[in-house]
Write a structure and sequence with these properties.
Nonspecific Lipid-transfer Protein, Chain A; globular; 10% strand; 4-stranded mixed sheet; alpha+beta; Four Helix Bundle (Hemerythrin (Met), subunit A)
Length: 266
């Protein structure tokens, strides 16, 4: 008998909005300190420079404002659920790269771009309801769900910016929590079951992978890691074997091997 589907995790749209804007403000403060030489340096993401990475971070937030300033797409139901979103990202890399390069050429001044992006977001989002449909690259989504995906974009690329520049950029706790939980839930969606417990304290615990289901006591198969390591694993920034070797993740039990399931995003 297949495992029963769990009810999707609920996210408060007001708290998510605050978290997204808070994380963007922290990135904005960090980007303002970068020199031209640093901005011209490699980002570690393909051919992107640090400047292009910074522009992409602004795009991640600006997309929300753009959609809310446009007519609502026809409904009544979204084409893409929140848990489907991580798996929809793989085919969009080329289009995202093209749009990023285009905006970088058109808006070389990062201070003005970040100021405009923050103001537009703050003005656009409070008036919109969580169930309002917005258009994404992969299909229509609920606004409340799309805002949660922005925590993933911002947290993941904040970490990219840190690794590219050495800047110590703090994480908004709520943004980090939402990002961690969505990616953990996506793992459970990809490999449903109850034989392995994946712990990412203090934000998430999920069970996944088919097999004997754990009901009480210490689970026979346990994976545990910290939020940033989990996010890097889920997005392909870190390889499973490397994380194990560096003791960044612990895995006990014969089924506690997530390598075949990672990364979750493209």
């Amino acid at each position: 008998m297949p495992p029963a589907k769990k009810r999707p995790r609920a996210y408060d749209v007001s708290r998510t909005r605050i978290a997204v804007l808070a994380q963007f403000d922290r990135v904005r403060e960090a980007v303002a300190t970068l020199t031209e030489d640093q901005l011209a340096g490699p980002s570690g993401l393909g051919e992107w420079t640090v400047r292009e990475l910074a522009v992409h971070l602004a795009m991640a937030l600006g997309r929300v404002s753009h959609e809310l300033e446009s007519p609502e797409p026809p409904g009544p139901k979204p084409q893409l659920t929140l848990l489907e979103w991580p798996f929809s990202t793989a085919g969009r890399a080329a289009a995202i790269a093209d749009d990023t390069r285009e905006l970088t050429g058109a808006r070389p001044g990062l201070d003005a771009l970040y100021e405009e992006t923050a103001v537009r977001f703050a003005e656009a989002v409070p008036a919109a309801a969580a169930d309002r449909l917005v258009t994404t690259r992969s299909g229509t989504m609920r606004l409340g769900d799309f805002l949660v995906t922005r925590t993933v974009e911002l947290v993941v690329h904040t970490d990219d910016l840190h690794r590219a520049t050495g800047l110590d950029i703090p994480y908004d706790r709520q943004a980090l929590a939402a990002c961690t939980r969505l990616l953990a839930d996506a793992l459970a969606e990809k490999a449903p079951g109850g034989s392995v417990e994946v712990r990412v304290p203090p934000f998430a615990v999920v069970q996944c992978i088919g097999g004997p289901r754990h009901t009480r006591g210490t689970p026979p198969n346990v994976v545990e890691t910290d939020p940033l390591t989990w996010i890097r694993l889920a997005t392909g920034r870190t390889q499973w074997a490397d994380a194990l070797e560096a003791a960044q993740v612990s895995a006990s039990g014969e089924r506690a091997d997530l390598a075949p399931l990672l990364p979750l995003t493209g």
